[in-house]
Amino acid sequence: MKVRPGIEILIHNRSGLLKGARVGAVVHPASVLPDLRHTADALREKKEFRLVSLFGPQHGARGENQDNMVESGFYRDRDTGLPVHSLYGDTRRPTEEMMEDIDVLIFDLQDAGTRVYTFIHTMAYCMESCAAFRKKMIVLDRPNPIGGSRVEGNVLLEEYRSFVGLYPVPMRHGLTVGEMALLINKEFDIQCDLNVIAMQGWKRDFWFDQTGLPWIQPSPNLPTIDTAAVYPGMVLFEGTQCSEGRGTTRPFEFIGAPFIRSRHYADYCNSLELPGVYFRPASFLPTFNKHAGEMCGGVQVHVTDRGRYEPYLTGIAAVSAVRSLYPGFFKWSDPPYEYEFNKKPIEILCGCREVPDMIENGISWNRIRQYWQEDVQAFKCLRKPFLLYE
Predict the structure, then answer these.
(1) What is the sign of the dihedral through the CA atoms of 304, 309, 311 and 314?
(2) CB-side neighbour CA atoms (13 Å) of 262
(3) pLDDT bucket at 64, cuts 50 / 70 / 90
(4) Is the distance from CB of 147 to CB of 211 less than 8 angstroms?
(5) pTM score > 0.85 for this model?
(6) What separation in angstroms does the CA of 62 have from each of 218, 221, 228, 311, 350?
């Protein structure tokens, strides 16, 4: 194994940190050790402390729920018998009642490496609750699956805050969950009693398949590292009435709609000469979600050069291409998005109105890229003191 995740370091080297403590743990299916034991099972085996409850993020502690499904606020875990509190039900943050029986809250979620993903925001809410109720919090670090050296995209503007974007960070932030925790705790004055257990062996330019760790899908529609690679850009199709491939075996890699001609669209996208990517003509039939049961024309997105590939830029260009080729059919999705009713989903996803405006005005991808260069440089300076890995 090249990389040892935070949970392995805690269990084998630093369990004394929890001596005598009552522990709660935020977990999901990808919360596993390198030997594939689940974090909850490994924590329960330790004698120095006592695991008393679990907390489930979006999709549940065991990954049982599809996107935006209504989730139970409380139930008992079938495997451990422990109480499970949902952080994607009536509340998004641990309440005082949920926290009253624990001394320390452990956070061990595999993130996707992009701002538009609820797990880092669940982490922020957990930190706020720990600060409010005077509990300690330990974040067990895991790899950023798409690497930690590249930063891309505009930062979120304050008026577009939501559960898929709480803080002014770029779409592709290049941080691990532990580094993100350190940054938001300090820069946004959360004042959480925070301890981050760093990984061993991880380097900033590692993609997940270079870590030697097993990939377990962190949510139902992120099944492979190929999906994680394209997600920071193709997630923008959630803000349109085109399919983002949900209901297929390749969500976010398949993009399309019944009105799209596959070869026509693929040829146009490839003519843009976007770096590190190829669009293969494809047809697919979603079994649920948008256009369920309808044959969709479109593309499968193939990353050909990770070092040059810019996922957010590629997603913007792909959305713009549909609008340019099929103006009579293309539509933005209507609110709500993640229970935000007052703004268009595409604005929530982009964290601003300017990028959707540029798409509507047919601005080239080269000019759109220039829009966020100052944001990228400023964020690189902001994040530098919190980087844990070379």
Answers:
(1) negative
(2) 14
(3) low
(4) no
(5) yes
(6) 10, 14, 20, 29, 29
